[in-house]
């Protein structure tokens, strides 16, 4: 089931960029959760095209509808089916892509794997697929908020070579701070520079990438299922399952490899009536299990593959050719990826919460 | 099934560090594969304690036995059961760990999750668990070699702040080059410096981490199952499921976020009678599916958590205390982690090969 | 994922009887299969209400729509999303069910499990859920027909105490013979008696059950995955996952327990250039694996729980009360269950075909 | 993972009849369960060869050993690994089976599927595989007993054409009543007749089958996961995954198809302070979910395929030949199958208990 994610809180996404609709089925959502369509729409609006002047100007309202699983404003424990109809379809705009493989896109590999593909807008490989993830993630976030006051906050820490100063990340950013700028970086001066860099890339028919950090607070100790379903392993899979991602790190990450053990270890201390760590190089996870500290991880996104400059490529007949994208693209995917990263983190955490509860709290001996 | 990995070629590992034995059950291995116990032993010997003067001097022969699934030298398509009995058990050596949580280890989180743990040598959280992975990976590697001449080569590119020069990594290293030094870095001068750094850390009662790169050549286009079971997503999960890992990147990785799209995209060209890329910033995977180029990924390992210097911690009663490890530990886990990284890569690839074959080659319309 | 079925050809059904729609997502359908909406509609029409004078006269057109996974008349290897909008909703008709648990229905158990339920028409427990199964089964049937000329034929062998004479079942019935009568029994005289019995039950405000036999020819030897995913085990699960089923048997079934081994064993003989059995008490499966003979199994369906006669029951407040159903119900579910049984059989077989292909044909050593 | 069963309490069995050992890995057993090797041995002794004069006289002590997952007498939440070494191996005794396919055995189908097989004693298709199931089931039974006073009791209701009188089954049999006779039928007069029939079959070089009923009391309402993982669906799969089974029925089963709805429905009444049914034709399950009544199901076992009389068959070269079994076989598998049926029922129930707990009790809104 390559289009499903999660063992107990399982989502199955479906849909092509230019098919009739995209959607998601959520199996395993606990019953009796109060839920309105607006709560889901709010999150979808954060990933919607056309929301600011640094994202694609495509016109997609991305209005979500409930088809099943909700009755009188509450979940029933039955599958929740959500759909978003596709509206902004310009059939002619993709004729070039029918014949030519876009560099660093999925056109060639889908053709090689399946022998057939919907070339329009990338078909299934389009980031429109993540609509279902964000919709399901909105439900997961609500569960976590109600269950344990868990807060998930993603934001940009780098665009191209512009990075947030470390000091600016000392406290957990508020949602308002993140949403204050179109680029979703909570440090205003850096955000302004990032926006300039993105606009400059767009003007040049080029694109930029960057890094999104995600922090989670309120997670109790005990989530994560060694040895294979460690919390960080499932977070890594969740992030690398997103389009355009090239890397993942948790806590000290790659930089931590340059510390000695005596510098890197997180000493324990009794604090607030429980076991706490003095530092958090572990990033909230030890031995694959949450330790009750803030979970902190980062994901690397490459520069958008679609650029307006002409590029060397090959066509479906194997002949060398050239391609220059036309139309309306994101010069940087990161601002719209922030709610997607949060959604995937929420899905991983709810799933592990259910698993921990089943295996370690059901029977008491 | 948190102790299982893979959908069609599934391994289930079991065992605690100081229990009777550790082992693995492999379900889904194709029938008729010629297999000897020596082929598996060879890989286990690469991760064995005591193999050089920069790893732990613990005495574990780690002799593997076949219990099921092999008949007259061939697999039968039935579960393969492999066991390694634990021999070097020093019960008294771990008394301290019964009461005190080792910093940046899994002691506290296992206790918080399960309410019980085998404290001896880390119990289930010990890296001895990876014996089963390496044994199963030896089978996966053999399948890949027979099936498509696939070669998997992992090696160290960094220890602490010592890194291999980029130019030294231009060609695919041979196994002999990797195995030539105890540290498993194919660049002799760098290897020598790494060994010195590891010995210095050990002398100081300290430890160091680093980075392992893994390359795979011979993988055909088409492996990987979007949207969630992308090849890089499953590789990321595999790597982050290993003890002591903090990060994963594929192709250009985190450094690629500092390039523009026009610099980062891999142009296509017709070459060798098929579609090839001119560069390989994608790391062999596009849209979650292999494109036939070399697969290249890197994993970050933190410095070993066990150090001989005294550290501040908390005991099982919640009281502040101090702990200093005794005994025989790896000052750097990376040299012994090389065969483990290769094993996990092989397991991911065989699993995806089977999945691709089932879904896309079974029925022809 | 309790709403999913199948490991490699996986369906996920969703929807409540009186919600907006019911549907199914199919993940793992091989690419390049030619497929029209009419091919699916044809099967849905066989389970539709109002198709004859012995089934419920409810008016549901049950028109299916493709939302994803099909492009230019072919599957793409991406998830296929199918939806049927619910039209015949009479909100007032179910007010009684909100307060009172219908005997031998799922009202009480859903309430006990989930603490909430959509009482209208049984909500998720309604047989309308099987629309998704039949739609997905239509695709599975087409694959089997194209792949290996596999034919699946279900039909009634008993209604109440009226049973088909054994001699009438010697040959594999044609689709025309099954569809010739409203009751879907290929023996005309028995069919006539069954129809009379069903009408008599309806007139009395009562209901009847019966037995459906299903035969499959053209299945090659080798399908089925011991030890747990034996072909008969997965068929049994598929059948017992249908509403109103109480039993399953394959080959000689319960009657076979009254034979001695010497009478029951199927002798082998060389025939048609391959290994065949002289008799088929095994029902086409030996050791959990198909042997190339006809697969023959039977499923017991209880009498419809909804009857118009008044019955003793309990309300949601735990008080004793009485209930008499009103409205439009099937006095016997079996005629409409025939395409559902075929669909589930097809889903099991395609799934096992893919699994057999992956595990035993991918690599040749 | 065809050799695994259960979603949250997952067992993986491994081993061939005449390999080095058979065993099981249990993943998902809750931590802190007190467990001794004797508790498991007790159940294994009930399925052991040589336990009475109506079963095979083969000499297998079937001594179980703990390899992992137990520490100081308690489970740890880590995988439990259990092994039973094979001792009674007579290599020469199976030479005939290397060349000739035994009728109604798995020899031919394993060969057709895998292209290779361990012919000795049936290899993987041998009922020795069920040792792992019984060992794991012993743990599941203990959990159920501690968790909710759940009792599982299986017993024979038929051997060949000898059946227990209905009146004798009115009350829940005690373990002592079942174990009082070698045939495990709680009605002494019937038991005596069954024993005679089994001995007569053996004397004639023949075999007999029969029916095992299983009852479970103490199960709370709410277990079972519609729509596919209904409790009866998973029980059916569990039973049909056992060697030699040909049928399954729950509650009224096949006989219930001869009742009218007005006769078959189980009226509800308030009793003992909760909702109860007056009758139990549902067999304790409604809509796929337990309703708190006794769970009652029956499984049909065919006559043992191995008989001493000569039979017509085919050899591995496709030539017609004849075969007569030699040696030590069960003339009737049912007495030894009783603990296996109980084990599978226990495994299904613990798994569903964990699932119900996770999905419906973890979060309270």
Indicate the percent of residues in helices of chain A: 25-40%
Question: Which sheet architecture does the biggest sheet of chain A show?
Answer: 5 strands, antiparallel
CATH third-level topology of chain A: Chorismate synthase, AroC fold
* Average pLDDT for all residues of chain A: 96
Uncertain spans of chain A: none
Strand content of chain A: 15-25%
Give the full name of the CATH homologous superfamily of chain A.
Answer: Chorismate synthase AroC
Q: What's the multimeric state?
A: homotetramer
CATH architecture term of chain A: 4-Layer Sandwich
What does this structure look like?
- 4 copies of one chain form a homotetramer.
- With 365 residues, the first copy, chain A, is an alpha+beta fold.
- Chain A has one domain (4-361): Chorismate synthase, AroC fold.
- In chain A, 29% of the residues lie in helices and 22% in strands.
- Chain A has 9 helices and 18 strands.
- Chain A has helices at 37-47, 95-99, 107-114, 130-148, 175-179, 188-203, 231-240, 261-264, 334-361; strands at 4-5, 10-15, 21-27, 64-68, 70-71, 74-75, 80-85, 151-159, 162-163, 210-217, 245-250, 268-271, 274-277, 285-286, 289-290, 295-301, 311-314, 320-323.
- In chain A, a hairpin with a 5-residue loop joins strand 17 and strand 18 (320-323).
- The first copy, chain A, is globular and about 65 Å long.
- The two termini of chain A are 36 Å apart.
- The mean pLDDT of chain A is 96.
- Chains in contact: A-B, A-C, A-D, B-C, B-D, C-D.
